């Protein structure tokens, strides 16, 4: 099928590349000329396992093209996927300017039936606004072309995006029952048929329910994280081990083991903004989502947990001290630094007078870029970006782990002890077993595990 993807970011690029991999003819549009040039020169703007190979293979096969040409993009696909960003507006609601600009472009250039697929995460009711924008553009040029707007939210996870797209748990599609909507359903069914060979993965519903499903899913996941973080902080106080508790509750099939890890708070481009946007939607209907307000507040506090643990151990004034930090990306297998807990930690350590030596397997370049936004030049100069994890430890008071990269799971503990000034690990992801650390002579501070370390 001929498909256009509008927005070549995490979601758009992965969607375009994966749909091309299935044999479709895909046109990826972006307004960012540099991104398009990079892709046309064989580069990849993001780190995502497996993506480079899929993009290269499909470009070579002539099934995947990148361009900034709006008219050509509208002419190309009968299916027009909108996958542009929906960042938070000043009041926390989703900023729809990019989605609506994409919709208007379609209305301005289309000359035959199109299915407009909202893949961006958008508030309930956005499909109606997209349809209105398209209709207005059609009216402006006296055209009367049939189209449908469907909602097809994306559930891929950064760091496993290609795998998630190719093997989705579910595909949610919302459409209306008009003839144009029914026709859209048939085309979407054809597009997603390869995913349903083993069993049906598509959940068909009305448009508003599909839009809502995406927010409900992210809100639920964020809630589990904040819930566990709050319990972990209490576990530290009452002398319980949150890891034992996690196993104890996760074994109940009604609860399940997934997404129950206590840590340094959630970040990224989705949970923080989607929780806020759902709260904002509720307020527009004079409803207050009390649970989600708490989820957000708990998360804001949890991002400070590592800084708090450093202060508890080394004091308020960190002048003259250096700390090693492993992991900067908001989660492993990505270079995404949006809302990353590491940013809160680094700011706190530096404001308290410390120097920091940091290492991340892939996010160093992106970290330099975003930290320059968070910190002054003088503050930035107090961060040393190291090429190897062990190099960050030399002369540091302690090692603080923020992101659970696989490469950090089995480090050489003797080397860690030898390089640090004090054998102290403050672990924001509970990577190690406290008794093992004690046995190695390491002072270990996890999240919600004080009972095992006596801290
Ligand atoms: P992104 O910022 O990585 O990419 C968005 C791209 O859209 C940018 O390259 C931008 O230049 C381009 N763009 C903006 N306006 C455009 C226009 N009018 N025409 C063409 N291109 C335009 O964003 P992302 O992370 O891919 O997220 C996209 C949407 O998908 C968001 O709504 C997000 O909430 C949702 N989502 C993201 C993820 C994720 O893990 N990143 C997962 C599921 C859903």
Task: Please render the helix and strand layout as text.
Blueprint: E1 2-6, H1 10-21, E2 25-29, H2 33-40, H3 51-60, E3 64-67, H4 70-76, E4 79-82, H5 97-109, E5 114-118, H6 126-140, E6 147-151, H7 161-166, E7 171-174, H8 179-192, E8 202-205, H9 207-238, H10 242-250, H11 271-284, H12 290-302, H13 305-314, E9 322-326, H14 341-351, E10 355-359, H15 364-374, H16 377-380, E11 383-385, E12 398-401, H17 413-419, E13 424-427, H18 434-439, E14 443-445, H19 450-453
Bound molecules: nicotinamide-adenine-dinucleotide.
The site of nicotinamide-adenine-dinucleotide (NAD) has 26 residues, from helix 1 and helix 5.
Main attributes of the structure:
alpha/beta; Rossmann fold; 2 domains; 6-stranded parallel β-sheet; 19 helices; 13% strand; elongated; binds nicotinamide-adenine-dinucleotide
Quick check: average pLDDT?
96
Strand tally, please? 14
What percent of residues adopt helix (DSSP H or I)? Answer: 40-55%
Shape: elongated
Structural domains: how many:
2
Structural class category? alpha/beta
Number of helices: 19
- Sheet with most strands: 6 strands, parallel
CATH superfamily of the largest domain: NAD(P)-binding Rossmann-like Domain
CATH topology of the largest domain: Rossmann fold
Question: Which ligands occur here?
Answer: nicotinamide-adenine-dinucleotide
User: What is the name of the CATH class of the largest domain?
Assistant: Alpha Beta
Outline the low-pLDDT stretches.
Answer: none
Spatial order of the strands forming the largest sheet: 3-2-1-4-5-6
What is the alpha-carbon Rg in Å? 24 Å
> Architecture of the largest domain, CATH level 2?
3-Layer(aba) Sandwich
Distance between the termini: 60 Å
What fraction strand? 5-15%
């Amino acid at each position: 099928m001929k498909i256009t993807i509008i927005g070549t970011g995490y979601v758009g690029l992965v969607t375009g590349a994966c749909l091309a991999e299935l044999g479709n003819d895909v046109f990826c549009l972006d307004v960012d000329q540099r991104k398009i040039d990079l892709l046309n020169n064989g580069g990849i703007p993001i780190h995502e396992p497996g993506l480079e190979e899929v993009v290269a293979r499909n470009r070579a096969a002539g099934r995947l093209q990148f361009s900034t040409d709006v008219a050509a993009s509208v002419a190309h696909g009968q299916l027009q996927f909108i996958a542009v960003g929906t960042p938070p507006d000043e009041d926390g609601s989703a900023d729809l300017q990019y989605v609506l600009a994409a919709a208007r472009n379609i209305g301005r250039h289309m000359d035959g039936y199109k299915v407009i697929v909202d893949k961006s995460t958008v508030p309930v009711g956005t499909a109606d606004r997209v349809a209105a924008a398209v209709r207005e553009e059609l009216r402006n040029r006296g055209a009367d072309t049939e189209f449908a707007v469907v909602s097809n939210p994306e559930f891929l996870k950064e760091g496993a995006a290609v795998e998630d797209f190719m093997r989705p748990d579910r595909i949610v599609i919302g459409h209306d029952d008009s003839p144009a909507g029914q026709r859209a359903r048939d085309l979407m069914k054809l597009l997603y048929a390869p995913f349903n060979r083993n069993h049906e993965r598509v959940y068909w519903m009305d448009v508003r329910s599909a839009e809502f499903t995406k927010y409900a899913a992210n809100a639920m996941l964020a809630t589990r994280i904040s819930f566990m973080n709050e319990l972990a902080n209490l576990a530290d106080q009452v002398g319980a081990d949150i890891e034992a508790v996690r196993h104890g509750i996760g074994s109940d099939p009604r609860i399940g083991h997934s997404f129950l890890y206590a840590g340094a708070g959630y970040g990224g481009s989705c949970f923080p903004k989607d929780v806020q946007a759902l709260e904002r939607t509720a307020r527009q209907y004079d409803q207050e989502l009390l649970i989600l307000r708490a989820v957000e507040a708990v998360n804001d506090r949890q991002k400070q947990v590592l800084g708090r643990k450093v202060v508890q151990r080394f004091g308020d004034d960190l002048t003259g001290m250096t700390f090693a930090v492993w992991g900067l990306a908001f989660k492993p297998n990505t270079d995404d630094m949006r809302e990353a807990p590491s940013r809160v930690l680094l700011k706190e350590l530096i404001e308290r007078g410390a120097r920091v030596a940091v290492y991340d397997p892939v996010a160093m370049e992106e970290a330099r870029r975003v930290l320059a936004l968070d910190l002054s030049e003088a503050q930035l100069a107090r961060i040393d970006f190291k090429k190897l994890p062990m190099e960050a430890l030399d002369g540091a008071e302690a090692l603080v782990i923020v992101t659970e990269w696989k490469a950090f799971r089995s480090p050489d503990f003797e080397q860690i002890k030898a390089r640090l000034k004090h054998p102290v690990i403050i672990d924001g992801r509970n990577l190690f077993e406290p008794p093992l650390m004690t046995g190695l002579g390491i002072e270990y501070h996890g999240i919600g595990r004080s009972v095992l370390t006596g801290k």
